[in-house]
């Protein structure tokens, strides 16, 4: 019996296969983006895109648009759940968001953050938390904030068969220790960031994400590493770039970080739609005969 003949949910329900997406540089994507495809991009001098996603519709839209990597960030804490920082989100909440995105994305590599408090105690704790994200959240890899001090944790995860994306520079889970949202890697601390990146690569991280790092420093780290790098506020010299989708699409109001480029005014569009709906309801023009049974 072929896959097309299998009943749902075992087959695809008779739906036509999704054609491979084509990136803006004309390079066709594989059926499913894997970590070795990101490595190929690094080796060939190409770039890839990554966006956060926390729900099925955003995941489907970005997946269809050809975004190579979807990140279920712990930023869901302050972009979905209403917290002021990323710290309050729990592993159970991350698993719920992760499963939703993983079920909706058919081609992107899906990565989930290890939230604060789920990995710091020991490598064993990190493995247990990551296993849950892969088994229950259905993700393909985890992202972990931390310096070279977490190299042994990365090794433990890799030994367990769990791909790890390392996160250095400004690490939001450590914002209180770092004194707030501040650029990292300036002056003498640039060498420490390079040392962190090299140690995490040596431990087995398949990728290193750098946040709020000076462009020159990020470029030097990307050059020194054999694995791909991803930047957010780290200049244009990294292999990939990531943004929080609500920032990218203009959904979140208020002051934006310097590194954010808004590609739409989704907040304005939704606001106008809501006003129009309310006006139609108040005037009695909605629902009309065409909307009634």
UniProtKB/TrEMBL annotation:
Associated pathway: Cofactor biosynthesis; (R)-pantothenate biosynthesis; (R)-pantoate from 3-methyl-2-oxobutanoate: step 1/2
SUPFAM superfamilies: Phosphoenolpyruvate/pyruvate domain
Gene3D superfamilies attached to this UniProt entry: Phosphoenolpyruvate-binding domains
InterPro entries: Pantoate_hydroxy_MeTrfase, Pyrv/PenolPyrv_kinase-like_dom, Pyrv_kinase-like_dom_sf
Stretches for region Disordered: 1-29
Keyword Cytoplasm applies: yes
Function noted in UniProt: Catalyzes the reversible reaction in which hydroxymethyl group from 5,10-methylenetetrahydrofolate is transferred onto alpha-ketoisovalerate to form ketopantoate.
Family: Belongs to the PanB family.
Protein name, per record: 3-methyl-2-oxobutanoate hydroxymethyltransferase
């Amino acid at each position: 019996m072929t896959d097309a003949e299998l009943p749902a949910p075992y087959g695809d329900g008779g739906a036509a296969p999704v054609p491979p997406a084509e990136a803006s540089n004309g390079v066709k994507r594989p059926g499913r983006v894997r970590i070795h495809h990101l490595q190929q991009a690094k080796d060939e001098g190409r770039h890839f895109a990554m966006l956060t996603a926390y729900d099925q519709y955003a995941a489907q839209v970005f997946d269809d648009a050809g975004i190579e990597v979807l990140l279920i960030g712990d930023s869901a804490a302050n972009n979905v759940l209403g917290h002021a920082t990323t710290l309050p989100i729990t592993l159970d909440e991350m698993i719920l968001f992760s499963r939703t995105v993983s079920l909706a994305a058919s081609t992107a590599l899906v990565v989930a953050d290890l939230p604060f408090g789920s990995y710091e105690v020991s490598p064993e704790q990190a493995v247990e938390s990551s296993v849950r994200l892969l088994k229950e959240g259905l993700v393909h890899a985890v992202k972990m904030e931390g310096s070279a001090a977490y190299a042994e944790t990365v090794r433990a995860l890799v030994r367990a068969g769990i791909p790890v994306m390392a996160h250095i520079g400004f690490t939001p889970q450590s914002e209180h220790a770092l004194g707030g949202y501040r650029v990292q890697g300036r002056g003498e601390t640039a060498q420490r960031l390079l040392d962190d990146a090299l140690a995490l690569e040596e431990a087995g991280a398949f990728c290193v994400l750098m946040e709020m790092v000076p462009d020159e420093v990020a470029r030097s780290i990307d050059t020194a590493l054999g694995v791909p790098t991803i930047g957010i506020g780290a200049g244009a010299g990294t292999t990939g770039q990531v943004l929080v989708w609500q920032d990218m699409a203009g959904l979140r109001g208020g002051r934006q970080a310097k590194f954010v480029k808004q590609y739409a005014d989704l907040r304005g569009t939704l606001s106008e739609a809501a006003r129009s709906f309310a006006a139609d309801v108040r005037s009695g023009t909605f629902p009309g005969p065409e909307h009634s049974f």
